[in-house]
Write a structure and sequence with these properties.
There is one protein chain. By secondary structure, the protein is α+β, with helices and mostly antiparallel strands. It contains 14 helices and 9 strands. The strands form 2 sheets. Strands 1, 5, 6, 7 and 8 form a 5-stranded mixed beta sheet that branches. Helices cover about 45% and strands about 10% of the residues. The chain has 2 domains: about 220 residues, Orthogonal Bundle (Endonuclease III, domain 1); about 100 residues, Nucleoside Triphosphate Pyrophosphohydrolase (Alpha-Beta Complex), CATH 3.90.79.10. The structure holds iron/sulfur cluster. The site of iron/sulfur cluster has 14 residues, from helix 9 and helix 12. Iron/sulfur cluster binds next to helix 9 and helix 12.
Length: about 325
């Protein structure tokens, strides 16, 4: 790729960022690495407007890496309830413990060292290293794939090894000549989020339109290319809703699998013969499958395991999948 084209693109992105950047609480003149890390983990799979209140309340509860490392798991999970992808929270805490034990509680300052932390992959390491420590390593997230594939006209699938490598190499090549790695990396993500959007990108008012490959070849709606995965799976879950004296029976899930470590009502093998379904089944969509959840009002005798009861107030401090949190909130206990 011609260096001139890379530079023109980069300078335009940096200009865009200076003119349009959103004011976000972790975007500071002197960014705090822990705050940036927290924001990047929360914003994976979550929009800024939805994620920001979570960032604020988790930071208020655990203001330092050390505090997060020592957090009670249930407390962290209860603050995370509603964000989904609970492994992100568990890995965040594992990472914090590792930073305390291996780096004296200070976030490591290089891309390579950041990559050694649990839960920090190439994207997050590049974001922290460039935003906080000015390292010239390109971020590649969904927004970046879209912008680069359209502008440079690259049709290599973005969800296969060859594409992942090609886009990372290009991102690293673009950032090399900058004097402001933080603005370029944040700029291309912001440009993808607000301007070169998946649907209805603002091509008619785009400074790059004259030299944008996809725009000039009429391929904007064909890029980026993503290979479709196989059919989604589905699973039926039957929950036993057992209530007693203003309390509801919940159990904590094991340490692996979907919703590990979260609280939910006991599960039944199948629909009970003498149960009353409390509400229509709810379909909860995970990234790879649909969970169809049924809620049965049953007596304690149908359960074959010891159970613990919680009052509504006590459930406020427990981490729960969002559908369970909503159920507990809305049913009469
Ligand atoms: S012209 Fe359209 S497709 Fe090309 S970079 Fe601008 S917004 Fe994106």
């Amino acid at each position: 790729m011609a260096t001139d084209l890379l530079n023109t693109f980069r300078i335009s992105i940096e200009d865009y960022y200076r003119a349009h950047k959103r004011s976000l609480p972790w975007r500071k003149d002197e960014p705090v690495p822990y705050e940036v890390w927290l924001s990047e983990i929360i914003l994976q799979q979550t929009r800024v407007a939805q994620g920001t209140p979570y960032w604020e309340k988790i930071l208020a509860a655990f203001p330092t890496v050390d505090a997060l490392a020592n957090a009670e798991e249930d407390k962290l999970m209860s603050l995370w309830t509603g964000l989904g992808y609970y492994n992100r929270a568990r890995n965040l805490q594992k990472g914090a413990k590792q930073i305390v034990s291996e780096f004296g509680g200070e976030m490591p300052a290089t891309f390579e060292e950041l990559l050694t932390i649990t839960g920090i992959g190439p994207y997050t390491a590049a974001a922290i290293a460039s935003i906080c420590f000015k390292e010239k390593v390109g971020v590649v997230d969904g927004n970046v794939y879209r912008v680069l594939s359209r502008f440079f006209g690259i049709a290599t699938p973005i969800n296969q090894t060859a594409g992942i490598k090609e886009f990372q190499t290009l991102a690293n090549a673009i950032i090399q000549n900058t004097s402001d790695a933080a603005s370029y990396n944040q700029g291309i993500m912001e440009f993808g989020a607000l301007h070169c959007t998946p649907k209805k990108p603002l091509c008619m008012m785009c400074d790059l339109a004259d030299i944008c490959s996809a725009f000039n070849e009429g391929k904007v709606d064909q890029l980026p290319v993503k290979i479709k995965k196989g059919k989604r799976g589905s699973e039926e879950i039957h929950y036993a809703i057992v209530r007693s004296s203003g309390s509801i029976a919940l159990r904590k899930r094991g340490t692996s699998g979907i919703w590990a470590g979260l609280y939910e009502p006991p599960r039944l093998q199948a629909a009970p013969k003498n149960g009353e379904e409390l509400a229509p089944a709810i379909v909860h969509k995970l990234s790879h499958k649909d969970l169809k959840c049924h809620f049965w009002a049953v007596d304690e005798e149908v359960l074959d395991e010891p159970i613990t009861y919680y009052t509504k107030d006590q459930t406020a401090d427990l981490g729960m999948p969002i559908i369970i949190a909503n159920l507990v909130e809305n049913i009469k206990i």
